[in-house]
Amino acid sequence: MIEMLRTPDSRFYGLPEYPFNPHYVEINGGRLHYVDEGAGEVILCLHGEPTWSYLYRKMIFPLKKNYRVIAPDFFGFGRSDKFTRQKDYSFNMHYLTLTKFIEKTELKDITLVVQDWGGLIGLSVLGKHPELFKRVVIMNTSLPIGNQPMPLAFKIWKTFSRFWPKFPVEKVMNMGCHKEIKKDVLHGYRAPFPSEKYLAGARVWPQLVPTGTNDPGVKQMTRARDVLKNWTKPALVMFSDKDPITRGAEKWFLNNIPSIEHEPFIVIHRAGHFLQEDKGKLIAEHIHEFILRSNARELQSPA
Predict the structure, then answer these.
(1) For the chain, which has fewer Cβ within 10 Å, the N-terminal or C-terminal residue?
(2) Helices 91-104 and 117-128, interaxial angle, to 10°?
């Protein structure tokens, strides 16, 4: 039987720049949390490691003026339930959870926004169900299929996350950003994890990145690559200039997605791996302009 923990609600009271009401959906016996703000076209924002929907707060505020912004917390993160054992986290669990979440919330015509593990999971779901998605925004992520060596920075991160006695969320966040984060904001990133036993999901995610061609997730990410190679819907790629983890990964997307020719590759300057924290408002502006441009092209195209 899978043992789950639930972070006390009191841990989330009064977090800076995060006044959003919680929403929940039950999936396979666990409670999954998500932010649901605004109205209009759906923008689905997916976080990575060791973050949660709090990472998108700077983007939610401007985007919710014109769109319905959905930002779920994967199991193990944020206000969602957390398994206590690392073995209960798997690529397939996260993949099926996101698929079920989209089904239960009845989302469609989605503008998918992904970063870090949000890309590995989110783009894999897009590869299986492309009909659910209207556009895609790809940031600081990749689709590894185990056929290339990982960057040294990732190898260090993988070892660190697995063996370090106490997982230092605040230190990880500061290292992953271009500028130092304020203490009250760091408290927001630490809030989901009252103790080490809540951090199994954060520790295991780096271990799940495929490093061999037979690893879990390779099949789904290979299918995602194949779908993206024939993707004619709008696509935007934005990578930061200060991220050693995903540096160079943008090349695959730029070289393989056909519709990318309609959009400029955007470099977010003075931003680290967590570019949403460093430059969230700017990224939101780029996404808004991207949607306006794609809608204009759709109106101009012949029926």
Answers:
(1) C
(2) 60
Active site residue 226: no
The phi and psi torsions of 74 (rounded to 5 degrees) equal: -60, 155
Could you list the residue range(s) of the whole structural domain that residue 21 is in?
A: 4-296
Which residue of the set 33, 243, 278, 286 is catalytic? 243
Asked about 273 being catalytic, the answer comes back as: yes
Its pTM surpasses 0.85:
yes
- Among the listed residues 116, 178, 278, 286, the single catalytic one is 116
Q: Indicate the number of domains in the chain.
A: 1
Question: Can you give the CATH number for the domain in which 208 is found?
Answer: 3.40.50.1820
In a domain, 301, yes or no: no
User: For the segment 62-104, what is each residue's pLDDT rounded down to a tens digit?
Assistant: 999 999 999 999 999 999 999 999 999 999 999 999 999 999 9
From 94, 178, 273, 286, active-site residue = 273
Residue 116 among the catalytic residues: yes
Task: Report the run of H or E that residue 92 belongs to, with start and end.
Answer: helix 91-104
Whether the predicted pLDDT of 2 surpasses 90: no
Per-residue tokens: 43: 């923008």
**81 occurs within a structural domain:** yes
